[in-house]
Amino acid sequence: MLKRYFSILIVFLLLTNVSAVSAAEPLDEIRALIKEYYIEDVPASVLTKSTAKEITKHLDPYSTFMTAEEFAAFSNGIEQQLVGVGIVLEEDMKGIKVLSVIAGGPADRAGIQAGDIIVSANGISLAGKSVQNAISLISGKEHTTVTLNYISVETNTLVSKTVTRELIKLPNVEYQMLGGEIGYVRLNSFAQESTKEIIQAIEKLGGAKGWIFDIRNNGGGYVSAAQEIAGLFPNVKHAFQLRDKTGKPEIYAVIPQKTKFTEPTHILINEYSASASEMVAVSVKEQKGAALYGQTSFGKGSMQSLFPLSDNSLLKLTTARFYSPAGTPVHEVGVTPTIETAVGEELTASHRDQLLTAYKGYEKLPALKGVPVTKTFTVEMNMKMNWSALKPEDVQLIELGGKEVPVDVKVADEYKMTITPKAKLQAKGQYILLIHPKWTSHHAKQMEKGIYLEVTVK
Known about the structure:
Blueprint: H1 2-12, H2 26-37, H3 44-47, H4 52-56, E1 64-66, H5 68-78, E2 81-84, E3 87-92, E4 95-101, H6 106-110, E5 117-121, E6 124-125, H7 131-138, E7 145-151, E8 158-164, E9 166-169, E10 173-178, E11 182-187, H8 194-204, E12 210-214, H9 223-230, E13 238-243, E14 249-253, E15 265-269, H10 276-286, E16 291-294, E17 302-308, E18 314-323, E19 339-340, H11 346-358, E20 363-364, E21 368-371, E22 377-380, E23 385-386, E24 395-399, E25 404-405, E26 407-411, E27 416-421, E28 430-435, E29 440-441, E30 451-457
Parallel strand pairs: 11-12, 12-15, 15-16, 16-19, 20-30, 21-30
Antiparallel strand pairs: 1-18, 2-9, 3-4, 4-5, 5-6, 5-7, 7-8, 10-11, 13-14, 13-18, 17-18, 22-27, 23-29, 24-25, 24-28, 26-27, 28-30
């Protein structure tokens, strides 16, 4: 029976309007569903409570009763959608400052810019208000308007604009090619189109020598998306194991994908990686499809199903616990990383190891620590060199977690060359300087292997 409702869950999560399925009162339906499907037995004293909210309050934190409007908001959250004007805010003494504007959104089209300070919304002053209070005044129902008075960052004058609130789609998959041709893909939510968007990212980053898949701070989403995304990793055949209230284990296969991450692949997790994120992380780790970098994840190893009720409301109910395919528990335990890193160092540690894997066999030189942001590097060889074939691409300075830094490479004398970054280095930044074995000595002896050194900036 769980399998039936597991498949039904996938369908219902795609709906925007839920049709009535029964003429019974919602309370009777709720009690019956809890008795049959909730992960634990519930005492009669809870089931006889007089409202749906009172009943679900005594269940686990992930089981809840939702009106149709609340379900719409729930779905929008998974799909990275919100109703508003498209601005990110922070407090300011004069009002609320605009940190950034979502490209193409209502505020962007109205000419509002980062740095503008909103002093009132619909005539209500925002001076001294928290961001949360300001959001409650600026946001509202789709297609309604809000009049914003703000101090322009460009002219320092007071401007008034009336903006129509819209449903805004935030980017769910972000990607870029990091220095050293390491492909980076970040997933913010396990939404309906996530797999398709990840595949597009992989294809656009073709030629990557390694992959970093980032699900830090990802609170989960649809189980079907987790099954699909697990199918993107090499060697991974099984998605997860489910156990309903009977405790009987049932293993679900991945949904195979033709496009996949290629080895080596890392997954970034942290303490806010939860639910579907943990589902993918524990299964991929177990089947050696990727190494995990970061900290132990949140520990939400439960699955919820959505049941439509006769008045168009919904019951979100915990119906199973999930485990790794081999039975490793996740609930209230979390997923431990393969490589534990300090908080905030997940990406730099992963990028460093990807680069060292790509250039395995290069000789490590002593690290440079606390260098200035305007550092010029001097490389001195122990024999006379023939620098005539020197090319800029033979030297790479790569910011860990970022891009390659363009450099000027110049010959100082027959033994030495200098490497000068064309832009200032980032304060507190971490870099790897790679020198590839492309040159010969004065006597035409080829460099046997490349060299690298690690650099930290003060």
